[in-house]
């Protein structure tokens, strides 16, 4: 087939049209909706408000609270996932006894549906019937307000996120560790480099590209957190644990405020893009040094 | 030839007989019809629908498929299906507060169902008010909901407790007439070291919380001198939720949260029932399920010791018109029709309209609904006169004294002179969401009751303007049973 053969259009255009129909069109529709005041319940005819929804959102304390909450969850959870995950991956790579069993067992949380994990967590943190508070009562300690105090509730959500998603970090980091060349370590051994020196001088720098990718993926995913918060706290108490996606869900699927929700989604997209671009810009000098 | 003709005749006769027998068994015959009903996740309501479905299947040979959604998902699922004119559901079960949002998509109840013995048997509060929207009937109540008071008779009749209570508070220990007395009782029985706490109410966001708060506030805001002004001024549609009556209600609701079991702030109605049935609390308020569950020896530690009464009231009620407290000669209870009981309706786009309304008829018949009302876990509370009049029916689960108090509380509440109706407005979720958020803050001590309610009032007024004040005012007046404003 020649490069200029018109038959190429038969193969290309269906794919282009499918992509347009299922991804670009909804995006454009949603973008145009974000400039409308458009409610399904109670039914109000759509009215163009241009940047009205965006301005209202940017002046809305609840929006900024949701950004802060999501950022806290994402950065703390991903930070700890990375530290714990890297540590466990190093241990598994050192071929500890029972390594295969650990490898399978540690992956299990990641395979569970977040809703199921959140339901189990809600039972564990239940104020009266939950085993945690029962344990505290057994030792004569006061019950803790796990899901009824904003700070505690946020801590519980972060703990669940770490428990569920650290295995992903372990999996990726372990795969990375297994590709590192042995001869570099042998040379370091000959130079009498300590394990600590080997880690900071060889392992960490060589793992930087994969670390950057893992943290990036987890960060973006964490910003999309919804099911865990929805099941565990519903965003409460008040709006203390309300994340951006939950806020969008409440506006879109409870209040059917479609224009406002579309604007919220685009602000969310902008926020994620800024975070992603900043993160990559900060890492670029370090990554380029490795090339 | 003759033999062959005889055989054919016999076969035809047999077929005809069998067919007529089948038709007789299925009356009306809905063989081959399968109705799909949207319900909240069981057992509450879904099990009542299944009970009705079994009866309907026996009667008509039709089938019913009950599709369950978690409470928080039910509204979006129904709205999505209705607004898309999607015939997914032949019937939808829902809260009366959602009716204004659903009305454009629902079919009217057949006129034949709007008369007769079974129709008149439905309590007027439902038949004439909650089932009506702009003069038309679009739905049928399948549950009666009014908040009542539940208490432990063993504690209240204990002479030692009675003496100690009187010595401390200066009046007799008895079901409270006022909310102050309710809090005194809760405080008196607050004994964490003995595993006993004062009261249990729902305080969790998304856990039926705001209805409990409304019950407190109804006593101070549902003024018979200015009817229908509990939530909004029926003349101007200005939000009333931050007036002194509401603030007093919220202060007492917050106080009640501190007189409950540990972490009561995480209680939804399910946990309230568990606390009452577990004998953890001396008193509580809530729907009629509490009394039924607490009376059931299989589910309860206090079976045989369950007392019921009408909600406490007040002799001072805020007047939204004069902006002053009205003093009444005696305490006036304002039983709050929280939620208002589940309703069932038939979407216009449903393919089996006739069969669907026939199912509604069976489901809500005095016999089937009466059975559901005395079955713990169905979530069905009395909404027919026959439900509260039939003591024999209730003797299956209650002792005679328990039955007398329970049915008395239900009937007196529904037929109370100053019964407070729940809010029903287009955009209901937008209005209640902000209440939940601000209640959460006030309960956690992050804001004062006045500041929390000021924030709610501000948002309610903004929403009313956005949705159209005149339209919302007309809807509100209709919901409160007031005539249209000229």
Automatic annotation (TrEMBL), chain A:
Domain ABC transmembrane type-1 intervals: 67-279
Compartments, record wording: Cell membrane
Keyword Transport (UniProt): yes
TM region(s), chain numbering: 12-32, 63-92, 104-125, 152-177, 198-220, 263-283
PROSITE patterns: ABC_TM1
Keywords in alphabetical order: Cell membrane, Membrane, Transmembrane, Transmembrane helix, Transport
InterPro entries linked: MetI-like (IPR000515), MetI-like_sf (IPR035906)
Gene3D superfamilies: MetI-like
Lineage: superkingdom: Bacteria
Pfam families linked: BPD_transp_1
Membrane topology type: Multi-pass membrane protein
Keyword Ligase: no
PANTHER family, A to Z: BLR7065 PROTEIN, SPERMIDINE_PUTRESCINE TRANSPORT SYSTEM PERMEASE PROTEIN
Family, per entry: Belongs to the binding-protein-dependent transport system permease family.
Name this protein carries in UniProt: Sugar ABC transporter permease
Organism of provenance: Bradyrhizobium campsiandrae
TrEMBL record, chain B:
Alphabetically ordered keywords of this record: Periplasm, Signal, Transport
Pfam families from the UniProt entry: SBP_bac_1
InterPro entries hit by this protein: Bact_solute-bd_prot1, SBP
Transmembrane segments: none
Signal peptide range: 1-24
Cellular compartment(s): Periplasm
Highest taxon of source: Bacteria
Presence of keyword Iron: no
Predominant subcellular localization, coarse grouping: periplasm
Claim: Signal is one of the keywords in the record: yes
Family from the record: Belongs to the bacterial solute-binding protein 1 family.
Name of this protein: Extracellular solute-binding protein
Organism encoding this protein: Bradyrhizobium campsiandrae
């Amino acid at each position: 087939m020649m490069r200029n053969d018109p038959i190429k259009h038969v193969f290309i255009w269906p794919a282009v049209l499918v992509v347009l129909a299922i991804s670009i069109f909804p995006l454009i529709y949603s973008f145009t909706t974000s400039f409308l005041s458009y409610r399904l319940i109670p039914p109000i005819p759509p009215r163009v408000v241009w940047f009205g929804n965006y301005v209202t959102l940017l002046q809305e304390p609840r929006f900024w609270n949701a950004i802060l909450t999501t950022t806290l969850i994402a950065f703390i959870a991903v930070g700890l996932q990375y530290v714990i995950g890297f540590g466990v991956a190093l241990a598994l790579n050192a071929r500890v006894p029972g390594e295969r069993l650990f490898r399978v067992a540690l992956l299990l949380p990641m395979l569970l549906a977040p809703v199921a994990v959140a339901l189990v967590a809600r039972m564990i943190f239940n104020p009266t019937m939950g085993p945690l508070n029962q344990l505290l009562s057994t030792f004569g300690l006061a019950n803790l307000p796990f899901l009824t105090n904003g700070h505690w509730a946020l801590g519980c959500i972060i703990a669940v996120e770490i428990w569920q998603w650290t295995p992903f970090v372990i999996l990726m980091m372990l795969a990375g560790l297994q590709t590192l060349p042995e001869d570099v370590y042998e040379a370091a051994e000959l130079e009498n480099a300590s394990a600590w020196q080997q880690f900071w001088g060889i392992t960490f720098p060589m793992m930087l590209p994969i670390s950057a990718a893992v943290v990036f993926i987890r960060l973006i995913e964490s910003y999309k957190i919804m099911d865990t918060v929805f099941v565990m706290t519903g965003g409460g108490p008040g709006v203390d644990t309300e994340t951006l996606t939950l806020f969008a869900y409440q506006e879109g699927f409870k209040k059917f405020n479609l224009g406002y929700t579309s604007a919220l989604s685009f602000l969310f997209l902008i926020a994620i893009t800024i975070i992603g671009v900043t993160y990559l810009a900060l890492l670029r000098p370090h990554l380029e040094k490795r090339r | 030839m003759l033999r062959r003709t005889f055989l054919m005749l016999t076969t035809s006769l047999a077929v005809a007989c069998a067919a007529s027998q089948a038709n007789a068994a299925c009356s009306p015959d809905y063989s081959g019809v399968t109705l799909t009903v949207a319900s909240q996740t069981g057992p509450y309501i879904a099990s009542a629908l299944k009970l009705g479905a079994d009866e309907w299947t026996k009667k008509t040979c039709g089938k019913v498929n009950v599709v369950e959604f978690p409470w928080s998902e039910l509204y979006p699922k129904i709205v999505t299906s209705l607004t898309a004119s999607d015939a997914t559901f032949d019937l939808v079960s829902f809260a009366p507060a959602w009716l204004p949002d659903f009305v454009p998509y629902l079919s009217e109840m057949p006129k034949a169902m709007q008369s007769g013995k079974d129709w008149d048997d439905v309590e007027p509060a439902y038949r004439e008010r909650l089932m009506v929207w702009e003069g038309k009937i679009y739905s049928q109540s399948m549950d009666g909901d009014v908040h009542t008071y539940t208490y432990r008779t063993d504690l209240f009749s204990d002479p030692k407790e009675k003496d100690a209570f009187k010595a401390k508070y200066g009046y007799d220990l008895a079901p409270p007439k006022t909310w102050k007395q309710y809090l005194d009782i809760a405080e008196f029985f607050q004994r964490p070291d003995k595993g006993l706490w004062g009261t249990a109410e729902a305080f969790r966001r998304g856990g039926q919380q705001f209805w409990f708060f409304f019950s407190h506030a109804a006593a101070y805001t549902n003024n018979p001198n200015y009817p229908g002004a509990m939530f909004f001024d029926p003349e101007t549609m200005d939000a009333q939720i931050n007036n002194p009556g509401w603030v007093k209600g919220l202060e007492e609701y917050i106080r009640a949260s501190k007189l409950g079991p540990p972490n009561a702030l995480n209680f939804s109605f399910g946990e309230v029932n568990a606390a009452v049935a577990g004998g953890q609390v001396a008193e509580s308020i809530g729907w009629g399920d509490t009394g039924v569950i607490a009376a059931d020896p299989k589910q309860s530690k206090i079976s045989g010791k369950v007392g019921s009464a009408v909600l406490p009231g007040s002799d001072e009620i805020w007047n939204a018109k004069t902006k002053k407290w009205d003093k009444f000669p005696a305490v006036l209870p304002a039983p709050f029709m929280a939620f208002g009981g589940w309703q069932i309706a038939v979407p216009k786009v449903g393919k089996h309209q006739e069969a669907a309304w026939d199912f509604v008829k069976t489901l809500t018949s005095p016999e089937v609904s009466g059975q559901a009302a005395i079955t713990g876990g169905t979530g069905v509370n009395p909404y027919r006169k026959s439900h509260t009049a039939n003591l024999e029916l209730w003797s299956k689960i209650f002792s005679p004294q328990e039955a007398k108090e329970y049915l008395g509380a239900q009937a007196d509440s529904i037929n109370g002179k100053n019964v407070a109706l729940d809010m029903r407005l287009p955009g209901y979720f937008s209005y209640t969401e902000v209440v939940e958020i601000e209640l959460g803050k006030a309960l956690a001590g992050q804001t004062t009751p006045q500041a929390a309610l000021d924030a709610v009032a501000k948002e309610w007024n903004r929403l009313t303007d956005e949705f159209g004040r005149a339209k919302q005012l007309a809807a509100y007046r209709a919901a409160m049973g007031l005539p249209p404003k000229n």
